[in-house]
Structure formats: C-alpha cells, structure tokens
C-alpha cells in the first residue's frame, strides 16, 4: 500500500505547523487582539482636548456650560454631528460618554415605559425577541441577555442582514421588537448595508407595532480607504415609508476623539426623541456640557471631523494592510480560512474551517496571543459553525500586530491540519 | 356694635400688604428662586478645571485615562471621596456627572435584576412602595412616579424622619422596599439626622428582605456655619446590625465643582457594589476618567475638598443670612410663617399658615418672583397642609435675592392676612 500524495503532503504541512507553533510558544509573547480599542497614538491626535475649553464656559447661545441643564445637549455640537450622522439637528441628542449607555437606556425605557406605538410596556409582554445579524457585536447580545430578551440569529450577507429572513421573522412574530444593526463597516465583518437593505428595513411590514431598529452607526466616518462609503438614510427612508418611529440612531466620538471621554448621540423621529428626553429628564439634569463644548472647539465642524478621521486612518490603515498581507502570505491558497478586507471600521473577521475557531483561540492564548473568545460574535457566545474569529488590529503597535497575526496563522495551520488529519 | 380691635388691626395690616404688593408688581421684577443651582461666582471657584488635566493623561497606576475601561472609576479620586463620604475606597464607585442617574439606575437594576437579598425582581412584584420623608426632594418623588412605585409620606422631625412611623411601616408591609433620605442638611429642611435615627434605620426590622435606604448624601461637605455637622456612619451601622446590604450611599461634586460636569459616587456593601458593577458592565465600558483625573488634580485630597467648600461657604453664607434677616424683619412676630435657619445645604424652608403656600407662590409669580411650585416637596406635588415653600437662595446675586425675599414676604403678608380676614 503506497502512501497517498495528499496524505504525505498533509503530514508535512502538519509537521511544519507543529514546528512553527513550538517556536511561537518559546518566544514568550504577550499580545492582545481582543477589543477595538484605539491605540495611544490615535488618542494623541486629540490631546488638545486635555486643556480645553481653556477658560471658556459659554456656549454659542450664552449658556453657562458649567451649570445644570440642557438635557438635549449643546446645539453647536449637535449641528456638527447632525451632518456626520445624517440626523436633523432638532432630532439629535448629545449625551454622555457612551452610545452603549444610550442603547441600554432605550431598552430600559421601552421595558419600563411605553415606547411610541406600543400597546404596553415590553416588560409586561410575555416574550420579547430581537433579531441579531451574525456575526455581530457581543455587547449588543449582552444587553439582550441581561434583560431576558430572546435573540434570533439572522445570517449576514455582504449587503447587510439577509432581508428575506428578516422580513419573514418580523412579519410573523409580534414578539420580535427589534433588530441590532451596525450598518457601516459592521462589527466584525466590515459590511456596509446596501441601499436595497436600507429600503427594505424601512418599508417592511412588522407584526409588532412598536418594532425598533437599533441602528448603531459606530463607524460612520471611520474609513480605511480612499473610498468613503456612504449608506442610505434609514431615518428618512422610515419616514418616507410611513414607519416614522421605527429607527433609533446611535453614534459617538469614542473612536473619533477619546474612547472613554467622548460624546454619544441619539437620533430618531420627533416622537421618539420626545419620549427619550421625557424619560431622561427623570434621570438627569443634563449631560456634561463642558465636554461637549470642548469637542466643539476641537472638532469645529463636520469637515473638521472628516479631517481628523483622515489622521486616524493614517495610523490604522497600515495595520489593516499588515493583517491582510500576512494572512495572504501565510494562509493564502491553503483553504484553511477566509478573511475580510474591510474598507472601514475596527475589525477583520477570520473565518476558519468549521469546528476550528475555539481551538485556534485556545492555542493562540497558550502562545501568549489573546483573542476575543471564539463565539463572542454570536448570541450566547455560540457560533454554531465554530468558525468566526474577530481580529481587532487597532491597539497593538504595528510590530506587535505583525507578530500576533503571524502567530495566529501558525495556530490556524496547526488546528486546521490537525483537523484534516483527524478527518482522514 | 363696635369694631373689634383685632379686626381693625387686621384691616390695617391687609391694607398695608395690598399697598406693598401693588408697589412690588409695578417694579417689573424677574427673579428666580426655583432650583438649587450654584451661582456663576461659585462655578468660577473651579475654573481651573477648564484647562485640566493640561496634557496629563495617566492615572497614578499608569492607566491611560483617555481609553476605555476602569468601570469602578479612578482609584485616586475614590480615595478622596472615600474620606468625604465615609465609604471604604474599595466599596466606592466613581461614575458619571450625576448622582440622580445612579439613583435612577439602582432602581432600574432592582426592577429588572434581582437585588441582593431579593426573592424576585421588583418589577415582578405586585406592588412596590417607598417611604418619602416630607418635605423632601421632588426629583426623588419623580423617580418613584416614573416607575410606578407607591409613595408613602413620613413626617420629618428635627432629627430626621419620624422613626416610630418608619419602623412601623417597614415592619408591617413587605411591599415597602425603600426610603429616600437626604441625611445631612436635608432638602429642603436642612435637617441633620441624629445618631439615634441612623442607629434605628440600620437596626430596624423590615418585612422586605431586600429593603434599601437610598442615602442621598448630597450635602456632605456643604456647611454654612463654623459648625461642620457630622452624621453617624450608616453603612458601618448597617453592617454592625447584620443588615449589611441595606444602604446605597450617593454623592457627587455637582455642588462642589461644576454642577453639570462633576463626578457622582455610589458606595455600599461589597455585595451591592458587585451587583451594580455587574449591571453597569453591560451598560458602559467605563466612566469619563479624564474628568475624574481633572478632579483629582484640582481637589488634591479630602482637605482640598474641605478648603474648597470654605470658599463656597464664603459665597453662600451671606445669602442665607440675608434670607434669615429679611424673614425676621418682615415676618417676625406676625405668626404668618415659620422658617428654617439651616447650618448647611442649599435651601430654606418657609412654612406658611395652612392653605396659603400655593397662593403665595402664585402671587409671587405674578409679581415676577418665580418659586418652586408649592407642593413640590411632597409626593405627587400634594402638600396636604399647603404650607411648605422651598427657597433656593444660591443662584441669584445677593441684591436680587434680597429683592426676591422681600417680595416674597409681601406675598406671605398679603395672602396670610387675606386668609385671616376670610376666616373672620
């Protein structure tokens, strides 16, 4: 009996991967690719914020920003981000330092108050479910889990969530109250929703009269190439379709200025804005308007935001290019994995063969390369194919990143070839 | 039939009050005594904040405060306020710009999650009630109303809420889940809870296993006299009584540094802190640590806080003295009203004869002096005796304040004598 050339070859590939993994382990690496955190050099771009507003404390209309009040946020900051987020300034709210907080609070208020169009509080309904395009953002899923909201996975396509599935689910089940969307440069796929997707989201018939699209436009101006992708205006499309109150728009400057000390935004229909302001008025006497003024002075206008994001891109693009280059060189043609080449946002998605992701992440961890847990991109941390790994290239230095990605490819080869051998 | 001397005298007093009120109306005043807002001169005391942290962006332990993370807040800021609020630093959380938000969120989390010691989520219980010492703080009552929590008024004494009533209510009704307390220089009475009150709050038997004291220590260092009143340590007393998880302590720098851009604090038992942090971790990736560092650099330590509050006192004390002086001069001996002389805090409570407060506020409003609506100090805005008026002396200039209080006394005389005449 002669040895099959393919088996021969697999043995050799596995040996080589094992050798490389052993060498990797001996290097004592300690690298972290887990979260989409800006690197210190990116934060340095906004260091002017650290001494602003530099004695000034009145807004354009003469308001003393040091005092209480101004629940909707500073008008001049809302003007800048009205353009950036595509929300009329009167329908935009500037709040605290986190859009996640605003999403949390919208869920809380929908649970405990009656959201416009609803027949009752969500908490009084037997079951509430949200559609979760997968892969998606783990913190969205954690919010659902925290509030006992059922999660229904919907596959992503390269034009957004599979709208045939979405339309069917929202039409047949009145318990489906919402969908999580990161419409531009999605987390983690980098997908940009097509005009058709936006149109269908706006126009679809929903069994729930109080259905809401949580439109987490986290990467609105976070381009990585010369092509500044624009997506269609869902807020306007909803209004045009007569589903005026369907969308909550979220955004923030967390990945524009300072990750922990930026400003978050909420935009929606007049009825929804009034609803949120009404509920917020019980919670707060107003946001940190000094920080909002600080941002106005630093960013100046929408062009200022775009110019600033070019400087961010200059730091990020080489990192994303390095990830692509190394993945191409090490895994290209192996059939062991596929990966995205996003035009913006913060992540690269690596898709291994089925059943390999958890083991790759485990092996990488043992070699000192910490990755987001496999499965985190799916509700309940359960990726049924065990294939998706989210790579966050922003935080490490370019050199650390290259080491980490190279090490990751070794783990993909090791686990992939081991699996193939097991299948033989 | 001869005219009674008392009636004669009343007629004269009423004539004089009518004359004064007419003169008041002709002055075209526009004065606002509604809210406990710091005056611009008070905010000026913290203007150094407007250019801090001035290039620095690392905390004592080397954390980059510009980035995500640090859910519990900056340790060095928590150290300062651990001493100020009497909470061990490990059990203290430094959060966003508003303690009201923290109170709101504690209610939300208790409603939607299971608070330590609870048998179920509050939202799943048929009825929830809070004890509301009256007069009290309208925003506390608004939170109850917003969440459908029944409010049970409890009379205040000069040592805190009437503990005989409190002990009876909490012992007999398991639906009573909490009590609102402003334990030092209370809003609006300026009452400081006695050691006995604190002891009884800590030790009392409650029918609800998940009873919580919302201890809003808003005026912990906000003295107005040389006597720096100290209150007993409720957190320690609860632990000593075996009711370790009974109290949520709240505080903030809103009336220390900047009213809209300060830092809020939450302190409690280890189990409660873990519970809040666990829930907050779904909501936020961390507070604005730059603003926390800014506060550390500005305040330095607990002595720095106290020194700063002496500067605040220098601005506030003359205003409170003016209020007392004018009330004495104009209403002393008339029997028309009583008023407080607080040793700290932000308010003077004026108590008219029964049935006069609404009319006094209305008449004052017509004369251009805006007061907090009568009744606001009671649940549902309903002061059953219609007697309590809350005066907030901080925001106007001393001259404006004197005009406003003088005008207010005219209204008290007018309404009081009119009422007496009606009773004749």
TrEMBL record, chains A, B:
Q: Where are the transmembrane segments?
A: none
Q: Does the keyword Thylakoid apply?
A: no
Keywords, A to Z? Aminotransferase, Transferase
- Please indicate if the UniProt record lists Transferase as a keyword: yes
* Pfam families in UniProt: Asp_aminotransf
Q: What molecular functions are annotated in GO for this chain?
A: L-aspartate:2-oxoglutarate aminotransferase activity
Q: Spell out the InterPro entries in the cross-references.
A: AspAT_Ic (IPR024551), PyrdxlP-dep_Trfase (IPR015424), PyrdxlP-dep_Trfase_major (IPR015421), PyrdxlP-dep_Trfase_small (IPR015422)
Spell out the protein name for this chain: Aminotransferase
Q: Which organism is it from?
A: Streptomyces tsukubensis
